[in-house]
């Protein structure tokens, strides 16, 4: 019996050949190394995501006590005892109906397409400024700061707290998803909770035009979010929206560096940008897998999965399934829009899609217009996570490269080096 370890660096570097093997040979695969059931075909992934009663998002303590993607990392005992005494943290992402339904109704008003579209001029202004200062790392200089600045402004957070904001966001995401320090994660969780609790209280007294002020006011049904719900939602926005958007920009740029013709066309025809964004989401999306727990014994395809099992629907694999897509390993701009599941599906469908698409589109348009010769200038560093796909660094040059010295054709497949393997 083969078993796949999601932390195998070869898998993290290039999971796509392994996904193909899984889809063909074991579409529902139990990974003993991770104690996770991997679901890899498009139809099965969709069925799991759309069956909220059968597949709970409430991971309970499973999310805190250990790191499901890296079982070697355990939370220190003293910290675990402290966390045990706290009430369970319920966020939108990790709750089930009916709680999820009520919460989602209350927060959805903050992210309507109209509200987000109105941000376009300001996002363009911030992007132009970041691109003015672009030096030699596209992630550090543009892709990483942009979503943090935008979400901080959206929440009315003063500019002098942005560094804290970024650090909290990074430490939370690293602790949750990439095997980073759980102590730093817990420390950041406490600091950010305290910060947002104070912010929420002050907005109740003096509301402004920001998202937190909007959420502290009662809606037409007289429903208001509790302090804990508000604080958790603010933290979720940091965790769910920053690094994912950064990664969408870097994954798009990797795909474009491999396709210089498309990059040149984008420079003169910005209308291509939305299709590039959509195809990047399908081809190399930032969220490769989502976590669920079975509420009862269930059949997925031909396999029986027990109650209480952790399931990982692999959206990254579903988006390359040849049973659903023609020519799935090709980057094509002529696919039906909105068919990929990079933003999930069902009741937890991403609330930030309009914002993520807008920011990424603006970055691509701006870079292609202002830097037609932008190209890779070294080997990028990949984030070491099987579910969060993106780059920590993307060294670039804005000058034309002499062939054979700077460009790295086919980098998307080369980062991390070796071929993927299934043991
Ligand atoms: C390219 C960028 C992004 C990607 C790929 C992405 C992906 C996802 C996915 C796959 C889910 C579903 C999770 C699940 O079913 O378990 C989700 C949920 C969510 N996303 Fe995003 N996201 C992105 C950007 C954003 C942004 C910019 C925000 C907000 C500012 C955001 C806020 C959320 C929230 C609040 C949820 C939870 C929704 C719920 O549970 O009902 N995301 N996202």
UniProtKB/TrEMBL annotation:
<feature type="region of interest" description="Disordered">
    <location>
        <begin position="401"/>
        <end position="423"/>
    </location>
</feature>
<keyword id="KW-0503">Monooxygenase</keyword>
<comment type="similarity">
    <text>Belongs to the cytochrome P450 family.</text>
</comment>
<protein>
    <submittedName>
        <fullName>Cytochrome P450</fullName>
    </submittedName>
</protein>
<dbReference type="InterPro" id="IPR002397">
    <property type="entry name" value="Cyt_P450_B"/>
</dbReference>
<keyword id="KW-0349">Heme</keyword>
<dbReference type="Pfam" id="PF00067">
    <property type="entry name" value="p450"/>
</dbReference>
<keyword id="KW-0408">Iron</keyword>
<dbReference type="InterPro" id="IPR017972">
    <property type="entry name" value="Cyt_P450_CS"/>
</dbReference>
<keyword id="KW-0560">Oxidoreductase</keyword>
<dbReference type="InterPro" id="IPR001128">
    <property type="entry name" value="Cyt_P450"/>
</dbReference>
<dbReference type="InterPro" id="IPR036396">
    <property type="entry name" value="Cyt_P450_sf"/>
</dbReference>
<keyword id="KW-0479">Metal-binding</keyword>
């Amino acid at each position: 019996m083969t078993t796949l370890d999601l932390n195998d660096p070869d898998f993290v570097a290039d999971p796509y050949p392994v996904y193909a093997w899984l889809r063909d040979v074991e579409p529902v695969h139990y990974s003993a190394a991770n104690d996770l059931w991997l679901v890899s075909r498009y139809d099965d992934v969709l069925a799991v995501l759309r069956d909220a009663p059968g597949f709970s998002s409430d991971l309970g303590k499973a999310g805190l006590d250990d790191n499901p993607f890296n079982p070697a990392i355990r939370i220190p005992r003293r910290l675990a005892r402290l966390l045990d005494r706290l009430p369970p943290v319920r966020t939108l992402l990790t709750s089930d109906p009916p709680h999820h339904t009520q919460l989602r109704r209350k927060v959805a008003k903050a992210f309507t397409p109209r509200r987000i579209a109105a941000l376009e001029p300001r996002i363009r202004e911030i992007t132009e400024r970041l691109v003015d200062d672009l030096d030699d790392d596209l992630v550090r200089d543009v892709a990483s700061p942009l979503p943090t600045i935008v979400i901080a402004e959206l929440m009315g957070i003063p500019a002098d707290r942005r560094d804290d904001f970024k650090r909290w966001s990074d430490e939370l995401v690293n602790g949750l998803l990439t095997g980073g320090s759980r102590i730093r994660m817990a420390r950041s969780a406490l600091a950010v909770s305290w910060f947002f609790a104070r912010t929420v209280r002050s907005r109740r007294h003096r509301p402004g035009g920001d998202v937190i002020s909007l959420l502290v006011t009662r809606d037409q049904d007289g429903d208001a979010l509790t302090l804990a719900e508000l604080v958790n939602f603010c933290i979720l926005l940091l965790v769910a929206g920053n690094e994912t958007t950064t990664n969408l920009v870097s994954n798009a740029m990797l795909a474009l560096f491999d396709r210089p013709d498309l990059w040149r066309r984008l420079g003169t025809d910005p209308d291509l940008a939305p299709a590039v964004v959509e195809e990047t989401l399908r081809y190399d999306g930032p969220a490769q897998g989502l976590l669920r727990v079975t509420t009862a014994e269930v059949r997925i395809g031909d396999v029986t999965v027990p109650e209480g099992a952790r399931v990982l629907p692999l959206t990254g694999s579903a988006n390359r399934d040849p049973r659903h897509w023609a020519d799935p390993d090709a980057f094509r701009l002529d696919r039906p829009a909105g068919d990929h599941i990079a933003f999930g599906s069902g009741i937890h469908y991403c609330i930030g899609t309009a914002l993520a698409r807008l920011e990424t589109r603006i970055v691509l348009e701006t870079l292609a217009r202002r830097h037609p010769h932008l190209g890779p200038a070294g080997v990028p560093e990949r984030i070491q996570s099987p579910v969060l796909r993106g780059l920590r660094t993307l060294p670039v040059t804005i000058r034309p490269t002499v062939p054979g010295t700077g460009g790295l054709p086919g980098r998307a497949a080369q980062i991390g080096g070796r071929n993927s393997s299934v043991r």
